Amino acid sequence: MRILIPAEVRPGEHRVAMVPSVVRKFTQIGFDVAVQSGAGRHAFASDQEYLDAGAEIVSDESMADALATADVVASVRGLDYARASRLKKGAVAVSFLAAVADADTVRGLRDAGATGLSFDFLPRISRAQSMDALTSQALVTGYRAALVAADRLPSFFPLFMTAAGTIQPAKVLVLGAGVAGLQAIATAKRLGAKVSAYDVRPASADEVKSMGATFITLDLEALEGSGGYAREMTEERANQQRDLLTPHITAADVVITTAAVPGRTAPVLVTRAMVETMKPGSVVVDLASETGGNVEGSVSGEVIQIGEVSVWGAKDVASEMPVHASQLYAMNVLNLIALAVKDGEIVVDLEDEVLDGCAIVCNGEIRNEFAREAVQGGA
Ligand SMILES: NC(=O)c1ccc[n+]([C@@H]2O[C@H](COP(=O)([O-])OP(=O)(O)OC[C@H]3O[C@@H](n4cnc5c(N)ncnc54)[C@H](O)[C@@H]3O)[C@@H](O)[C@H]2O)c1
């Protein structure tokens, strides 16, 4: 069995799907590992380190052949059409792959008769935790969010009792206490801030409290949906939530927003008017910026000013810590692919709940309804 790691081509993508320390683990389960020259460059993994770990380095000129002969191709982002359509029949491509936004990849996999396993659709069950790349990368983004806020805030995070007087700790409010939110809470706590958090899922309250933060309870119905995810809000509930959250926003020095509803545009939790109630110099970090934004007016990849408050819009945040983001991602790939290895061959067994969930294309057949519609719409 041969696994190929192509270089990522999307601008701003600095992660890589394989790191040298994981090459040997693939060798142990029966793979020859091939890595495109320079693929690990942005994650500080050199061709020599991959070679030392037992991988083969593939030159750019040899990539067409390498794609056509690989049994598995692992990348962070979906392959573009040209590369996906070159795969051999029955080959498995594993990456993040959105059903609609990545229609070109899906079309390529269909045309090649290949299989596409997407981390975006991996069932979030305990057996799949070691394969859960959404979780591993959310951990990186949550950690970064707290560091960005601490860096941009013109005052301290921790309490300081000095001979020159006492400095009160920063008040950090985290909206959305999923994987990224909890990591933002943990990191802000470690930096010494006074942290509070809100989430529409009551189940998150114990997790927030276990990190030493205060859970904000609003007099509103809970929005627990299926699979432990949130449900979408009605506009009326959204308005009520914003009204009830406003005093908490006003009191905060830092607001970090991480709220998402699967398959939907991110809900607007904080309006421009709410930001305007914050003290001058306060900082807002909107991790949901790339999917519409939790903060009205936030722009992905930019810092905007609302009055004297700076609003940082997230873009490719996990790529800002490419070393550990790639290491965790490579382990997620290993654990997912190991599930599909049977007696030295790749078998994507759709009877397995995990493989069934994430195989959005199987041997050229598009299995995801939204992906099918998106592909038909384009060609
Ligand atoms: N393998 C597993 O068992 C596994 C792995 C990861 C996550 N999970 C669970 O999945 C759930 C969601 O995790 P996630 O981080 O991927 O979520 P997510 O990225 O989809 O959303 C982030 C958070 O935003 C919250 N949110 C949505 N709308 C909101 C609103 N209007 N106001 C405030 N908050 C709002 C959600 O409840 C969620 O906690 C959690 O229960 C988590 O524990 C399970």
Please describe the topology of this protein.
Elements: E1 2-5, H1 20-28, E2 32-36, H2 47-52, E3 56-58, H3 63-69, E4 72-74, H4 81-84, E5 92-95, H5 103-112, E6 115-118, H6 133-152, E7 160-162, E8 165-167, E9 171-175, H7 179-190, E10 194-198, H8 204-210, E11 214-215, H9 235-251, E12 254-257, H10 272-276, E13 283-286, E14 303-306, E15 309-313, H11 322-339, E16 341-342, E17 345-346, H12 353-358, E18 359-362, E19 365-366, H13 369-378
Parallel strand pairs: 1-2, 1-4, 2-3, 4-5, 5-6, 9-10, 9-12, 10-11, 12-13, 13-15
Antiparallel strand pairs: 6-18, 7-8, 14-15, 16-17, 18-19
Helix pairs in contact: 1-11, 5-13, 6-7, 6-11
Nicotinamide-adenine-dinucleotide is lined by residues 124-126, 128-129, 132, 134-135, 138, 175-181, 198-201, 204, 228-230, 233, 258-262, 267, 269.
Kindly describe this structure:
With 379 residues, the protein is an alpha/beta fold. It has 2 domains: 2-121 and 322-365, NAD(P)-binding Rossmann-like Domain (Rossmann fold, 3-Layer(aba) Sandwich), CATH 3.40.50; 141-320, NAD(P)-binding Rossmann-like Domain (Rossmann fold). It is built from 13 helices and 19 strands. It has helices at 20-28, 47-52, 63-69, 81-84, 103-112, 133-152, 179-190, 204-210, 235-251, 272-276, 322-339, 353-358, 369-378; strands spanning 2-5, 32-36, 56-58, 72-74, 92-95, 115-118, 160-162, 165-167, 171-175, 194-198, 214-215, 254-257, 283-286, 303-306, 309-313, 341-342, 345-346, 359-362, 365-366. The strands form 4 sheets. Strands 3-2-1-4-5-6-18-19 form an 8-stranded mixed beta sheet, sandwiched between helices. Strands 11-10-9-12-13-15-14 form a 7-stranded mixed beta sheet, sandwiched between helices. The protein has a two-stranded antiparallel ribbon with strand order 7-8. It starts with a strand and ends with a helix. The site of nicotinamide-adenine-dinucleotide has 32 residues, from helix 6 and helix 7. Residues 124-126, 128-129, 132, 134-135, 138, 175-181, 198-201, 204, 228-230, 233, 258-262, 267, 269 line the site of nicotinamide-adenine-dinucleotide.
